[in-house]
Amino acid sequence: MPATPPLSVKGVLIHDGRVLLLLNERGEWDLPGGRPDPGEDHRAALAREVREEAGLDVAVEAALDEHLFEVLPGRFVRILPFVCRLVGGNAIALSSEHLEARWIPLEDLGESLAGHRLPAGYLSAIRMSQRLADAR
Fold first, then answer.
1. CATH fold of 7-135, please?
2. How many helices, marked H, and strands, marked E, lie in the chain?
3. SS3 51
4. N or C end of the chain, less CB within 10 A?
5. Which ranges of the chain have pLDDT less than 70?
């Protein structure tokens, strides 16, 4: 494993009791997001990535717990998730980076959804975001 795995910022976007998930080319549910450009602020990068991948505008709020994700055997990425809030409409304009996008009801979440894996670190970030929202 490299000394410092690459960083990917991810957005937990919950709206009307549902969370936005994107189906990636590995057949896994993913949170919207990606790698910041060199020198780019993490929150600005995430807002850009959500707009590019799903056509949605978001306000990027609190950072959640960072974790390591093994994307492929022996290949790790540092995941830094953030709570996001929808700004504007919730109609998704899916990019070519993902196969599908869905607003998944929070009560339906588990490590398997519609026959596809939801990585445990993403599920944990979604649950943490829910707890923060409930505490408000």
1. Nucleoside Triphosphate Pyrophosphohydrolase (3.90.79)
2. 2, 10
3. helix
4. C
5. 1-2
